[in-house]
Amino acid sequence: MERRAEIGPRQTHRLWHRSLISGLRSPFTVLCISVLRPLFSGKVPMRRLLLPIAFLAACAPSEPQVDTVTAAADSMLSAYTTVRLDADLSGLTENERKMLPLLIDAADQMDEIFWYEVAGPKDSILAAIANPSLRRLVEINYGPWDRLGGNAPFMAEVGALPPGKHFYPPDITKAEFDSIADAAPDGGKALRSLYTLVRRNGAGGLTPVPYHVAYQSLVKRASTKLRAAAALADDPGLKNYLTLRADALLDDEYQASDMAWMEMKDNGIDVVIGPIEIYDDELYGYKAAHEAFVLIKDREWSDRLSRYATLLPGLQRDMPVPAAYKAETPGSDSDLNAYDVVYVAGQTNAGSKTIAINLPNDEEVQLAKGTRRLQLKNAVRAKFEKILTPIAGELIAEDQRPHVTFDAFFENVMFHEVAHGLGIKNTINGKGPVRTALKEQYSSLEEGKADVLGLYMVMKLAEQGELGEKDLRDNYVTFIASIFRSIRFGASSAHGRANVARFNFFQDMGAFTRDEATGTYRVDFDKVVEATNTLSAKILEFQGQGDYDGVVAWMGEMATIRPQLQADLDRLAGAGIPVDVTYEMGKTVLGLE
Ligand SMILES: [Zn+2]
Question: Distance from the CA of 538 to the center of ligand 1, in angstroms?
């Protein structure tokens, strides 16, 4: 499952790390480190890992050091800018308003659990850090490891973050885990479960500890809050889902509640809660981390999206590619909705912020019910205002900057999601599904496809009068500006690679030009259409042919950041444009207290 979580720019951060770490190397801290080092001798329980922060904070009191630490931490904090999540609640019923604080309370339990999963007890960790800037940085990252910078420690003394974090014993190796898991009576099922922690037992073996046992008091509290919210729910679908989810947190059997979530259609508010995504288990990707989103449905946009989904078959027919690549009939049953996010907790609140969700992850539920794509409109707006607009101010030709608009950005992001439904799922030459044929290249190419076909959809729907009064130039310029934003998250993610390849392809086709004197980019409105159509055809041909070698060669050439682009990206970092946002959120922000 894809989630637009947008993982981090490594290069800009490396500098900050260096300054922060070197800022801590006073004789005083070195002394403290040498005292602490024995703590890191392999067999120390993971939760002890947090002690060094406490000692470090206590160990570095003298003014010059503190100032250096503050300056370095502030420099890393400047990658983030704060956004208030104050949604309009006027469309909610009385009961829905009453449910929100309960859902927020339940979400807070997920936050607490996530701290344990990746670092240790939140309160004592944060309380031990005297420097406010450093404490804030640790809070944003849920530990002293930089999530925008490949989890590099920003306090040298804590050492590297074990890839299995707190889900596994910190010193475990894959060889050890595999041999013990394979020899287990159940073949390792419980040890490899999405919903267990792995702990050493006295006998030199490993014991799986179910989440609902490990986090008993926290999940009970969350469950009670969900049940109280269910009692207030007017919509029977939401009532059923909340009740089943409250049960699931107590026994880690989530399937029934996932089914109920897909069956619920008319709810005005929603909550995604529990152990869900596996990104934080970097050892195996077995363990789901706890998180929560509290959401309010944007009914107007949701209705528009369902209408567009019904137009997919016609859009498929009209695609600018040879007939063989558009022979499949796209499903028009996709469940795509827009929401405002009012609260996030746990995994999804750590580091960069999610703008779209595609759930559930349980494949049996997917087969039975499909999936739901949730677009988080105010999260998209936050990134537009705080990041894309300043990027355009730096890199888009001055007279074209007014064409960078939120509506165009949101349309481009939305139609990206709808466009995943267009095109081709199976190769046309007997190589089987495109996904299998293109192996690890599949994701980048599919993301690239959704980007160009999303823009194609906007052009087509505008032509058909479906989008009302419309200046397509807004979509084109915004599309080009947002390539810079996406590439800043690094060329290693699927989205990042797709964006670099498209940038180079479009540049080579003259879809935009760079003005040497001003260092800005100008879109050519005719050529950008031509480039979109040509790239769409090229990607669909790769997919239809299942041409793995062709994709490897093409990506090898196109998905590399060229020196001029790198220099322009460096300018963005130099101009202090943030990379991501943090949220100011909760009951007070929503006026619920
Ligand atoms: Zn996508």
Answer: 18
Place 21 in a pLDDT band, splitting at 50, 70 and 90: very low
Reported as a single tens digit per residue, the pLDDT across 368-383 is 888 888 999 999 999 9
Q: Which two tokens stand for residue 228?
A: 């109280």
Q: If you measure from the C-alpha of residue 486 to the centroid of ligand 1, how many angstroms do you get, rounded to a whole number?
A: 12
Residue that the structure tokens 């046992």 belong to: 213
Interval between CA 136 and ligand 1 midpoint (Å): 32
| Gyration radius of the chain's alpha carbons | 25
Give the chain's domains with CATH numbers.
Answer: 10-77+121-156 (no CATH), 80-119+165-297+334-370+579-593 (3.30.540.30), 299-333+373-561 (no CATH)
Query: For residues 319 and 41, what is the distance between their CA atoms, to the nearest angstrom?
Result: 60
- How far does the centroid of ligand 1 lie from the alpha carbon of residue 258, in Å? 22
Helices 216-232 and 94-118, axial angle in degrees (round to 10): 170
Calculate the dihedral angle through the C-alpha atoms of 467, 470, 474, 476, rounding to the nearest 10 degrees: 60
Question: How far is the centre of ligand 1, averaged over its atoms, from the C-alpha of 246 (Å)?
Answer: 31
Sign of CA dihedral 514, 518, 519, 523: negative
Q: What is the mean pLDDT of residues 167-196?
A: 96
Whether the per-residue pLDDT at 44 is higher than 90: the answer is no
Task: Calculate the average pLDDT of the chain.
Answer: 86
Q: How many residues does the chain have?
A: 593
Distances (CA, A) of 401 to 380, 384, 388, 464, 477: 19, 13, 11, 27, 8
Phi then psi dihedrals of residue 189, to 5 deg: -55, -50
List CB contacts of 414: < 8 A, sequence separation 6 or more: 301, 305, 336, 338, 375, 454
Q: How far is the CA of 408 from the centre of ligand 1 (A)?
A: 17
Task: Retrieve residue 61's tokens.
Answer: 């009191």
pLDDT, tens digit, 9 for 90 and up, residues 268-312:
999 999 999 988 998 998 999 999 999 999 998 888 888 888 888
Q: If you search the block for the tokens 């503190």, which residue do you land on?
A: 66
Find all residues with CB under 8 Å of 250, minimum gap 6, and list them.
Answer: 212, 219, 220, 223
pLDDT at 55 over 50: no
Pairing of strands 372-376, 335-346: parallel
3-state percent helix, strand, coil for the chain, nearest multiple of 5: 55, 10, 30
Distance CA 309, CA 289 (A): 32
User: Rounded to the nearest whole angstrom, what is the distance from the C-alpha of residue 416 to the centroid of ligand 1?
Assistant: 6
DSSP H helical segments within 493-562, as ranges?
Answer: 494-508, 525-545, 548-558
Give strand pairing partners of 319. none
